[in-house]
């Protein structure tokens, strides 16, 4: 949390009992961030591969259509169409993979958000506990000062041995 304790409180003695749980939650958040990064990288690679295949498909389709005017033999034409079909099949596979990866990225984002909310809750709890600890320490300090003041006041009000002999 952004707000800090006043300087009149020493927080070194503060022990947050849920710190192991908070640390574990931080690890979960880090793991979710890494998983999202991996999924996004994989998605980017797939999208790049898809764009390359689509460009190659378009280029080869132009080539095949230009060859159509030359009236090549049917075997060459059939081989060209088969190659176009393979390009289309590869593009279809990459598009399906891209959609699956987008879904996975969205699921990872949701997981990351969930882990972030949990960690934020633990951080707020820790801050509240630290604030409560500071208030208790201030209260104890004020009580101790009051006792000291009352003790000194009683000493000042009590007659000194010299004053007792005079009366």
Characterization of the model:
By secondary structure, the protein is mostly helical. It has one domain (17-166): Helix Hairpins, CATH 1.10.287.1700. It is built from three helices and no strands. The protein has helices at 19-68, 74-157, 161-166. The longest helix has 84 residues, at 74-157. The protein is rod-shaped and about 135 Å long. The model has no long low-confidence stretch (mean pLDDT 87).
Alpha-carbon distance between the two ends:
64 Å
On the 0 to 100 scale, the average pLDDT is: 87
Main sheet summary:
none
- Tertiary shape: rod-shaped
Oligomer: single chain
Q: What class would the helix/strand composition place it in? A: mainly alpha
User: How many runs of DSSP E, i.e. beta strands?
Assistant: 0
Provide the number of structural domains: 1
Helix run count? 3
Gyration radius (Cα, Å) is 38 Å
In brief:
With 167 residues, the chain is mainly alpha-helical.
Main attributes of the structure:
167 residues, mainly alpha, Helix Hairpins
Describe how the helices and strands are arranged.
Elements: H1 19-68, H2 74-157, H3 161-166
């Amino acid at each position: 949390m952004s707000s800090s304790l006043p300087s009149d409180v020493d927080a070194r003695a503060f022990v947050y009992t849920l710190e192991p749980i908070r640390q574990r939650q931080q690890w979960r958040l880090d793991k979710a961030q890494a998983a999202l990064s991996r999924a996004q990288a994989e998605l980017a690679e797939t999208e790049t591969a898809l764009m390359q295949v689509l460009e190659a498909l378009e280029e080869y389709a132009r080539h095949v259509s230009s060859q159509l005017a030359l009236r090549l033999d049917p075997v060459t034409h059939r081989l060209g169409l088969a190659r176009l079909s393979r390009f289309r099949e590869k593009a279809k596979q990459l598009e399906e993979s891209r959609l699956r990866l987008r879904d996975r990225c969205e699921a990872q984002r949701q997981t990351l958000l969930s882990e972030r909310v949990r960690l934020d809750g633990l951080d707020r709890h820790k801050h509240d506990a630290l604030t409560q600890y500071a208030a208790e320490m201030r209260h104890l300090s004020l009580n101790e000062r009051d006792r000291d003041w009352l003790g000194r006041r009683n000493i000042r009000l009590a007659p000194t041995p010299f004053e007792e002999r005079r009366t």
